[in-house]
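testing teh design pipeline on a random one, pls ignore if ur not involved
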């Protein structure tokens, strides 16, 4: 069992940065790939980024590539999403998720555990 709690969201302006954190509880955190999704109003849940259990491989959606960086600390049981050069189209609820599968992209059906989400709003 893994429980996930996100933090770090907020209201920022175009071009600003935010760092999201996802704290995990559970002894098996290090065996899961960690994934960030986002969901904008009226849209489906969209893959953003993923990192393998070892941290040696990371994956990004094209829409955020070069602006966002995912990382994890298996000692602190925490995964991070550093978001730079934010745009209004990045506005969404951001969800942390854990998957037992190793993939370069994820759909929600590959996820075992979800966090509650954290709101990111980017004003123009």
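output:
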């Amino acid at each position: 069992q893994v429980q996930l709690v996100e933090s770090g969201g907020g209201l920022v302006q175009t071009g600003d940065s935010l760092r999201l954190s996802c704290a995990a509880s559970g002894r098996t955190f290090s065996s899961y790939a960690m994934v960030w999704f986002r969901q904008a109003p009226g849209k489906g849940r969209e893959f953003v980024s993923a990192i393998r259990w070892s941290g040696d491989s990371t994956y990004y959606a094209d829409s955020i590539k070069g602006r966002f960086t995912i990382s994890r600390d298996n000692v602190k049981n925490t995964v991070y999403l550093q978001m730079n050069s934010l745009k209004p189209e990045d506005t969404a609820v951001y969800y942390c998720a854990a998957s037992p599968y190793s993939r370069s992209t994820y759909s929600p059906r590959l996820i075992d555990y979800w966090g509650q989400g954290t709101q990111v709003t980017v004003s123009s």
